[in-house]
Amino acid sequence: MTSDTASTPLFVVVGNVNQGKSSVVAALSENEAIPIDSYPGTTKHAGTYVFKSADRELFRIVDTPGFQRPRQLLAWLQARTQSAADRPGAVREFVETMADGGEFHDEVELLKPLLEGAGILYVVDASSHLEPSNEAEMEILRWTGQPAMALINRVRDRDHADEWRPTLRQFFHIVREFDAHRACFEDRVALLRGFREIRAEWSAAIDTAVAAMESEWRARRKRSAAVIADLMCKALAHVEHRALAEGVDESAVSVELEDAYKAAQRKLEVAARDEVERVFRHPGLERDDPSVELLREDLFSETVWKAFGLTRTQLLKYGAGWGAAIGAGIDLAVGGLSFFTGTLIGAGIGAAAGWWGGQHVARVWPSSSKLARTLLPFETGRFVAIGPVTSPRYAWVLLDRALVHCLAVRDRSHARRDALELAKTGVVADLSKERRDALDRAMRDVLAGIAKGQASELDVARLETAIVNVLTDR
Amino acid sequence: MDLAALIDLEWLLRDGAADSPKGVRDGGVADRVARERGVSVRELRARLDADPALRADLAEEWLDTVRNGRNDLPGERVVHGLDVAGWLLIGIGLLLGGGASKALLAYDGTTPVNVLWFVFVLCAGQIALLVLMLFFILRTKSKRSGSAISVLHRPIAALASRFFGEGWQSLRESLRAMRSRQALFADVERWTLFSLAQRFGVAFNVGALVVALATIAFSDLKFSWSTTLDVTPETVHAGVRAISAPWAWLPSAIPSLDVVDASQWDRMAGAFITKVEDSDRLVKQWWTFLIAGVVAWGLVPRTVALVLGSWFARRGIRAYGFDHVGYQGLFDRLLPVQAGWSGPSPEDVEGVEPTKAVEAESARAMSGASTWVLLWGSAARHDAAVRDELTRRYASDIRAMHGVGGADLGADERAVDALGREAASRVILVAAAGQQPTREVLDFVLAIRRAVGAGKPIVAVLLEFANGAAVGDALEEERAQWRRSLGTLDDPHVYVATGAAQ
Ligand SMILES: Nc1nc2c(ncn2[C@@H]2O[C@H](COP(=O)(O)OP(=O)(O)OP(=O)(O)O)[C@@H](O)[C@H]2O)c(=O)[nH]1
Ligand SMILES: [Mg+2]
User: Fold this and answer.
1) Does the beta carbon of A418 lie inside 6 Å of ligand 1?
2) Which of A80, A114, A452, B150 could form a disulfide with A377 if both were Cys (CB 3.0 to 4.6 A apart)?
């Protein structure tokens, strides 16, 4: 072994089967792919997960198979030792004797990395009882002579931590709680900082790793905000149009137009979600599951419009501004309201549910309108078009959904293998006035730019900053 | 970076650029750029945010890789289309300019050419256009205005759909997609179209000049001016001087008052109003003024506008930020974040899960029968509670209870021996909820089987304990877990008890 790897902190996660060892490793290493299952013995071979920053290995974590026969193993060791000094040697002898597996395959796999001078992370499931076999495990770990920390995880809703603590404290000088399924970034960093106590000489490497993670985290926040800002720009600006053959009137294509417009909005939303998931290293997140109710719920459904977005009072306040800033610009350009089906596209919600700015998403306009030259400069011939968004209510619903999704993905532990769970209500209605004003202002400016042909990069950047602020607060 | 490359990039990255197109390997891109710049890849990553030129280099290098062997990218087509449109405009400009000049200088030997018409069309008209152009430039400079140049989009689109048909349709879609956000791209586009329009202007003036010079050189022209209005030669002369302000330093191209006076034409009389001796010589002097007018008010400003327009367009490309979401994603891929994890692939650590088909069965009620009870691990601490619970549940006749799975391995053996000795007919193994069906548990079940012989039921009962009492069942998930593991023993008489409620 080179001196370089010798000085790289190495942590081995051990424990009985099914305690959540792999879950802890998956959460820490943001790895969606680590096999995790309720079958005892899911992990069959030790796997090493390496954290690197700037091409330098900062530390490693080894996930191991769980203990299957700890009492027998302890008995084997006890039979070969006379004094405490022999103990680490006995463990080594065990690993060497049983190297080719057999009934102690799992124990060999888990002890082998320990012999390389690793720090031990002993994971227990405090929703089960402390069993004699657990005590045997702790005893074996003590025999290895390596520094160790105990992690209390809970696989079920029961809690027997009080039963565990007195015993854990005898064997481990550090005992911490870590909920593998609910751990968010801050919890992970806190745990990592805790690793410094396992062995003082590793502190520097751990500090560097924490700093790298934190800077990466800030970059992700910025990236995800950029994705959401981009979604808002694209969705607000989107214009769908259909050519009209000679003598055909607008109503012939109105249904198709509306459907295409909605489909395009949904597609933009999905694309943005995929990107946010990629940013937070959740590329394989299952969103097709029917249990992801609200975000799966159609963007244009009444339930969604009620659960997300601003409150009625807030809307009233901002609505006026929208009307002045863009509504007027677009309305004037659309050229009067006389044109076809009231020129508003319905959001699929009942009239009763609508209030100011509530009933429509965007306006429908003909190729003769002034907007055509600004928004569809390359179109020739007669057509009918819809967009950009004129409803503040819709814009806020879309933004709210994007924020809720982003927060859920950000705080999701990589140990989970179930479908993404999302808040049932939005976040924007509860933002501070200052934050909400900033978002509204930025969206309005972006939209005003769009109505004139192009959103200015400056406004987009402002929207991005407003979103970053929201993500930072939460 | 040129326009074609920029268009290709925008097009490729329009949906956020999740991945490189199929079959494209990003691998060497960052390395090549790093080598060119003589720095490490790590250094590149550190500079990325602050250095647009680096972003441009990376994007271009990547584009080269993508372009390799592909011809479905729109950039070249757009640029080609613009070229064709440019040449068309030049052709049309030459024709129109030449035609205008020809018409304005028409002289059949009777009525001399009226210079006022020429000045009106080719000087005053162009001055008006120049003012309009300046207005356009100032308007676009002041942020936030729709691009006036989009007047050009429609005619260009109409031309393009005539010439490119189908291809244009898809191109138009991509152009639309690109325009949806990038204000900077709009700038590039605007100035590109602007300089395209200037080509027409330059060609128009060149055509007009060439035809005018040819007409002057190859035929004898007489110039005159006439008007219905009550205008004195002095006023006309003042106007002439005003128009010639740009070439005031060239007196030979500014008609003198004598010339103006001598060339006022009386249509009814069919003769010049003022009779002067060398009127023939004087009225011919107008030509230098007319040519200078077209050069100064047409050709020069249009050429300047053309040069400026192309320069602005190029500057737009150079000033391009390469930093919207699509590019961010691309750079993240080309220069992976420095901090990150790596690990083995899932298959390398995973064991093979037993198939669900061999789950052990659930045992339901089994009242009455004689039962031998083994208490695994922590369950042994609750022997009284277990006895009560089992009696209550199954009304069974408990013949013996042994603690097993404890610190003492010998106790396990003794319990198994006892079962064999007493020829146990039914064994219940009680474990606390949360106890895992580990290999040692399975080994132990096998040992029981060997002791009691085949066919005797062995039932696992999972109970939850608190404060020394059995307070309920383990969760169904936990029982399922045991069924799965016990199923691997392939013994039809090993069961997992259902919960009390079932
Ligand atoms: N609710 C909840 N479930 C958890 C938690 N941690 C682990 N689990 C579940 O517990 C089961 C076992 O988790 P694993 O991470 O595979 O446990 P392990 O210790 O690696 O198991 P083996 O590899 O089989 O030894 C899985 O079904 C997990 O979903 C937790 O914090 N909360
Ligand atoms: Mg595991």
Assistant:
1) no
2) B150
